[in-house]
Amino acid sequence: MTRQPALFFGHGSPMNALGGSYADAWRELGRAIGRPEGMVMVSAHWETDGPAVTAQPEPETIHDFGGFPAELHAMQYPAPGSPELASRVAALTGAAPTTEWGLDHGTWSVMAHVWPEADVPIIQLSLDRRLDARGHFELARRLTALRDEGVVIAGSGDFVHNLRTWKRAGGEPYAWATQFNEAVKAALVRGDDDALIDWVGLAEDAQLSVPTDEHFLPLLYVAAQRLPGDDVSFFNDVIEGGSISMTGVRIG
User: Fold this and answer.
1) Rg of the Cα trace of the chain?
2) N or C: which end of the chain has fewer CB atoms below 10 A?
């Protein structure tokens, strides 16, 4: 069975579900990958006390946002789940299977373009609030074997995610945002996992880029999948509105 890549998506606004240049790159990525056996997604938008994994055969499309157009709120992404894959992940990580979550917008707003036919089984693994960054990385390492079972391991968030400084009308990236984004990319290229785990030391004013860590932590689940010989590449390498990084990562 072909080893599948690990992917990180800078997902940005839910509005990206409706299309645009980022969606074009996501569609191209989906065509390049083809149809894997399944995906395990770690989204910035699902945090729990203790790890959990979605286990229902038909996960709900969760509209976990407000104030957006009716067209977006009506959008559905009916990808199947996989109780079997959920059981495998639970055995590897100790995550508790649950049917009380589904696919949140960190997942479906992107996957609606990667696999628009919604025919790839997707499960979500939560971010355990009890873990520090190293704990997340070590948990993620337990998933690596799944890549050789035809499963894509993915994360969805943003390297740089500061909504307080975001410029609604757009504009040039803040210098600190560019510096941090480039430092993260450089650490990924050189395989410096410790630098990613200790992200506060990656660049001056790093905490402006990561004021809260839920959008950064999914990246660690992807970085942890790197195996000898894996290439690292980037897509949608743009900082939007000054302080939201759309940068995506492909490992392998």
Assistant:
1) 17
2) N
